[in-house]
Amino acid sequence: MSENSKTLRFGILGCANIARKVARAIALAPNATLCAIASRSREKAEKFAAENGFPATVRVYGSYDQVLEDPCVDAVYLPLPTSLHVRWAVMAASKKKHVLVEKPVALDVAELDRILDAVESNGVQFMDGSMWLHHPRTAHIQRLFSVPHSASSVGPVRFIHSTSTMPATPEFLESDIRVKPELDGLGALGDLAWYCIGASLWAKGYQLPTSVTALPDSTRNDSGVIVSITASLLWDQPNQTFATIHCSFLSHTSMDLAICGSNGSLHLRDFIIPYGETSASFDLTLGAKFVDLHIGWNVRPEEVHVANELPQEALMVQEFSRLVAGIRDCGSKPSTKWPEISRKTQLVVDAVIKSLELGCKPVCL
Fold first, then answer.
1. Pick the CATH number of 134-312+346-364 from 3.40.50.720, 3.30.360.10, 3.20.20.70, 3.90.950.10
2. What is the rounded distance in angstroms from the CA atom of residue 27 to the CA atom of residue 38?
3. Number of Cβ atoms within 10 Å of the Cβ of 203
4. Over the stretch 39-79, which tens digit does the pLDDT of each residue have?
5. Which CATH architecture has domain 4-132+313-339?
6. What is the reported pTM?
7. Cβ neighbours of residue 279 under 8 Å, at least 6 residues apart?
8. Domain locations in the chain?
């Protein structure tokens, strides 16, 4: 098999701004290549291709269907509005195209299940675009939870706090698709809280919380779309853990993740998008106590640095392509890890909405 045939050939449906980042990631990943780009008009797709310097080998289409009918396209990336995901993801799977879909994946778990049923029945790989999960820093931190009684472990997780906020411009709050109910009706809950909910689940080994509660400070725009939301998650077993998330289009930029265990704690201030592409860090504190008279601490946080050869979005593409290669070349089954992560995240998103509808009462999962 030639090297070219081992490369996963991507088509992109849509010219959203995030598509620029993922197109670059596809170019950087050693086992992927961009094969086709489509918009609802050929003129828009041609302009997008020119602005991003795509090579002449990238085919430009004026409809999404043309990408799905292209026999040279192995997989599609969907940066479309959330309301369009189920239609095009299901259609892509039916054409035997592997599916990388931008988050939030769906408007509710019923829609997501339609997507997951389609990818499973057609034997194709699914993954959502939560890039931070693919950074080596994430795996490094994961190991700090893996040996509960080790001196280098933070111990069983007891408390999690995460934020994802951005100071949206008046133009954004007026016209961006993320504040339009017919396009991305989840608003900040889907666009931002997907990360915070996902981080809380990740810290708990993807155990679903016992209950989810929305706090009464949520803010909606005139169309009823959530632009700011705070919620809590509670786990009863095997040890009680409490998580808080705050996500907003109305606050200064933040991407904080703090995790406290019985023996230590760690803090990331850039957990969704690292400050730099070539390395990322986090603060780790183990065995902290107050000194005599409580006038200081016995230890200071250690700043742990983790280097990476590729940006996290390219690592995501590389991992997705590796999984597809296993299906294509070795007869492997599609990985169920990524669909399960997306579905559990969606279940919690749905629970936050239900809690809001119930006047911020706890919703059991």
1. 3.30.360.10
2. 17
3. 23
4. 999 999 999 999 999 999 999 999 999 999 999 999 999 99
5. 3-Layer(aba) Sandwich (3.40)
6. 0.95
7. 305, 306, 307, 308
8. 4-132+313-339, 134-312+346-364
